[in-house]
Design a protein that fits this description.
Length: 873
């Protein structure tokens, strides 16, 4: 049986090892040096060189520390993402039981080749794509590849079948897990030719793009570079025309240009992002890539996986239909608490409902799953199981759901073991499509059956009614039950039939079965997911569901979750018939994408991106990894997600909860709003400083502020207040605004005009203060001190204006950000010390102002914000 070792070695040489290929990764040094390619970073590095040349060593050290901090953070984030495909290799089984030279031996999975015969059993991870040669009750969890939550039964097909397309009953796929049963398979694809390998290829082909924030900061860097160049040339030219020394004016121009650089900006952006990451972590969202925080705020489309994100990923029995009663079960997922009632919310005593008891007894006996919990307080008379915990489940999810439903009515395996002795079991087979258990109940031998309703119902000649008596199944009554089964299926319930017979032989074909009931179960939508979808809609963020499940099931779940309002559904097969142009034209019509494969998910994400949407993609399986990596923001599930998905993702939801993602979107919007706030503040202040110096030179006045005073201004105003401004809480209406357009510039909404105009007013106010005090006959030191006070105080007032782009100073609660209040107080104390402390007066060339000089300085500081706020009310 199988091939020989010699044949295997020859095929290994030609086909290669059964491993998932890994792209060549950039080395650590290359990744680190790549952090210095940003325009703003290059400007700062240039400023560092010039600062050293001018003797401003403290400036140079500060700037280089900022640059290194950003480079180290960026390097750490990129280095982590390089391990995505390495994790993919770990998804394959390390060993395999393989027939070689007629003997069954265990070999390294990497040595498998096409033609090998392998043996598989429950608990094994499939090492390669194989055609099934023999299967005994063999079920495989393929959710890692297909996203479908229900284990798939496998059966023998054509031995020569070499087509390893997804969703084939006679093919088992590399990376999937065997749930139960046993199987013999023939290897038909290894390595990169497996479905897992094809996903790896998709990951390799996906390049990295800049985030919207990185693009906008690059845009800002170019603007700053142009401003610096213009300032340097203008100051140099104006001084030379006045007859000043050429070298002195060159140095002055360079000094002022450096003053125009918002050197605190990269650090403030990093701190704002890091603080947002910290807040998100408290809300159970772990961020892999720092800049993705802001990108979340741009999100206009959330492509959500169904299983485990919108739904619980926990099969739940919601109803049980006997011959003449319908029973409803409350309590979703694996929650211990839950009740059983008749339709119409009629309370029952489960022990007196004979038909219900018999059906649930059948479900428990026909189950190889196990459930356990520490919550054991039972109340049989009320048909409940008290407790706030969750069941611990092992085995098939469908069978576990039956056990939990029975436990809600007080029926468990341990309670049945006193009356029932199981003497034989016939496992579920994908050909017969039912399971049977042979047992002794009291003094009677019985067979209990669980399986597809279309298989078992035609074989039922009798049924048990509500009083526990057996009645004859008429043709009309059978049609009624068939219609009920169809109606349950139309509601996206998975329907199983339960039956029994008093016999010791497996003879369902004789038609001697007694119908016990239909069980309807579902993977229910999370309540918090429904709320999250509503919040997204209010924020003009569209949520679409992408799943490997059937179209009807997907639409039913989408309807319950609130996703089908005006939307349509499309399948992967239908997607294949659309060209990229047709898909781009129509994709906004769809809110449900069903029966999709990994390539479809990738195509959907790319289509949304082509039409200008910012796409966030969620998922947990390897099948989601390519689309997650391609999306603007990839989001993995922390509980159910695979290592591959987590490492490909930008954000990991530690509770697998869609509402956590919506909270993260809010934080992303807040971060971007805060970045705009402190960019507005820093640039306005720097423009004010530059204009003060430039106009002073042009007007033939003494140097308004000497370099050490400019350094003090930057120290006092550019650091703590800007950082505190980055800690602003989200504004109350932030999630009722539409997301930003992908092509929206950083200065959209008139921000540049606000910056320039306010900067001009700061500069003019400072000059006015200087000239007014000068006309009083005061010394140059006194004039500069007045100008220094005006410049700093006007900037510290302006920082409160920058807290909102929509409200004026008088409409903002000044104590809404106490960190900002504290930062401004600290800055005020530093300014006061520089003016009043004799030792610091010598360092900063200041003088104690007279009362008149102080009032002039404060008057010009407050005039502009007061007037502008009054005009905007």
């Amino acid at each position: 049986m199988g091939i020989t070792e010699k044949e295997a070695e020859e095929r290994l040489r030609t086909e290669g090892e059964n491993v998932i290929g890994v792209e060549r990764r950039a080395g650590p040094l290359s990744l680190f040096l790549g952090q210095f390619r940003d325009v703003m970073v290059m400007i700062l590095l240039g400023a560092t060189v010039i600062s050293v040349f001018l003797g401003e060593i403290s400036d140079a050290v500060t700037i280089i520390l900022i640059v290194l901090l950003n480079a180290i953070l960026g390097f750490i984030q990129e280095y982590r993402t390089e391990h995505t495909l390495e994790a993919l290799r770990l998804m394959t089984s390390p060993t395999a039981k393989c027939w070689r030279d007629g003997k069954l031996r265990e070999i390294a999975a990497s040595r498998l080749v096409k033609g090998d015969i392998i043996e598989l059993e429950a608990g094994d991870r499939i090492p390669a794509d194989c055609a099934v040669l023999r299967a005994t009750g063999f079920f495989v969890d393929e959710s890692v590849l297909t996203g479908e939550s229900v284990a798939v039964g496998k059966s023998k097909g054509f031995e020569d079948d070499t087509d390893n397309s997804l969703n084939k009953k006679n093919i088992v796929y590399c990376g999937a897990s065997a749930v139960k049963g046993s199987c013999r398979g023939k290897v038909i694809a290894t390595g990169m030719n497996t479905q897992m390998g094809k996903i790896s290829g998709m990951l390799t082909d996906i390049g990295r793009e800049q985030t919207p924030l990185q693009k906008r900061l690059a845009e800002l860097g170019k603007v700053v570079a142009v401003i610096c160049l213009i300032v340097c040339i203008a100051v140099f030219g104006a001084g030379v025309l006045r007859g000043e020394n050429v070298f002195d004016m060159l140095m002055t121009g360079i000094t002022i240009a450096i003053a125009a650089i918002p050197e605190g900006l990269p650090a403030t952006v990093t701190i704002a992002l890091a603080l947002a990451v910290s807040r998100m972590m408290k809300q159970k969202a772990l961020v892999n890539k720092l800049h993705s925080v802001e990108t979340l705020g741009c999100t206009s489309i959330i492509c959500s996986d169904k299983t485990g994100t919108i739904t619980e990923n926990k099969m739940t029995v919601t109803e049980l239909v006997t011959a003449d009663e319908e029973f409803l079960f409350t309590g979703m997922g694996y929650k211990v608490s839950g009740t059983v009632t008749k339709r119409g919310n009629i309370s029952i005593n489960s022990m007196t409902e004979k038909a219900l008891t018999e059906a649930l007894r059948c479900g428990v006996i026909c189950s190889t799953a196990e459930i356990s919990t520490q919550e054991t307080t039972k109340s049989r008379n009320r048909g409940t199981l008290a407790g706030k915990g969750e069941w611990s489940v092992s085995g098939d999810p469908t069978e576990a759901a039956l056990l939990i439903a029975a436990a809600k009515a007080g029926i468990t395996k341990s309670s049945l073991s006193q009356d029932i002795c199981i003497i034989g079991e016939f496992p579920f087979d994908s050909e017969t499509r039912f399971m049977a258990v042979h047992c002794i109940f009291g003094n009677e031998k019985r067979m209990y059956f669980k399986g597809a309703e279309e298989i078992l119902l035609p074989r039922c000649l009798q049924y048990i009614n509500s009083r526990g008596e057996v009645a004859v199944m008429t043709a009309s009554f059978r049609r009624k039950l068939e219609e009920k089964a169809v109606e349950m299926s139309d509601r996206a319930l998975r329907v199983l039939a339960l039956a029994m017979c008093c016999s010791d032989k497996l003879e369902p074909d004789r038609g001697n079965l007694v119908f016990l009931g239909f069980v309807g179960m579902t993977d229910p939508p999370r309540e918090e997911a429904k709320s999250a979808i509503r919040r997204c809609a209010a924020a003009s963020v569209k949520t679409v569901m992408i799943t490997g499940d059937h179209k009807n099931t997907a639409m039913a779940v989408a309807g319950m979750a609130g996703l089908l309002k005006g939307g349509m559904a499309i399948t992967g097969e239908e997607l294949n018939r659309l060209s990229d142009e047709e898909l781009d034209r129509d994709i906004r019509k769809y809110t449900v994408f069903a029966r999709v494969e990994p390539a479809h998910k990738l195509r959907i994400v790319r289509s949304f991106k082509r039409i200008g949407e910012i796409v966030t993609m969620t998922g947990d399986g390897v099948n989601d990894a390519p689309a997650i990596k391609e999306a603007d923001v990839g989001v993995a599930m922390g509980v159910t997600g695979t290592d591959v998905t987590k490492q490909a993702a930008d954000v990991i939801l530690m509770d697998d909860n869609l509402s956590t993602l919506v909270n993260a979107v809010e934080q992303g919007r807040c971060v971007y709003a805060n970045i705009r706030k402190f960019v507005r503040y820093l640039l306005s202040c720097n423009i004010g400083e530059v204009l003060t110096m430039f106009l002073g030179i042009v007007m033939g006045m003494p140097i308004v502020l000497i370099p050490v005073q400019i350094l003090l201004v930057n120290l006092v105003t550019d650091s703590l207040p800007a950082i505190a401004l980055g800690m602003e809480r989200p504004e109350s209406d932030i999630m009722s605004r539409p997301p930003r357009r992908s092509d929206e510039g950083f200065f959209e909404g008139g921000l540049m005009w606000k910056i320039v105009i306010r900067g001009i007013f700061i500069g003019l106010s400072t000059l006015a203060s200087f000239t007014t005090v000068m006309h009083l006959g005061s010394s140059v030191e006194a004039c500069r001190t007045a100008a220094l006070i005006t410049l700093v105080v006007s900037q510290l007032i302006h920082v409160f204006e920058c807290r909102s782009e929509r409200r004026s100073l008088f409409r903002i609660n000044p104590f809404g950000n106490m960190k900002l209040v504290g930062a401004v107080l600290v800055s005020g104390v530093v300014l006061a010390a520089a003016v009043l402390v004799p030792q610091l007066q010598v360092v900063f060339s200041t003088a104690v102002p007279s009362m008149v000089e102080l009032l002039i300085a404060l008057g010009f500081s407050t005039a502009v914000p007061i007037v502008s706020s009054l005009l905007s009310r």
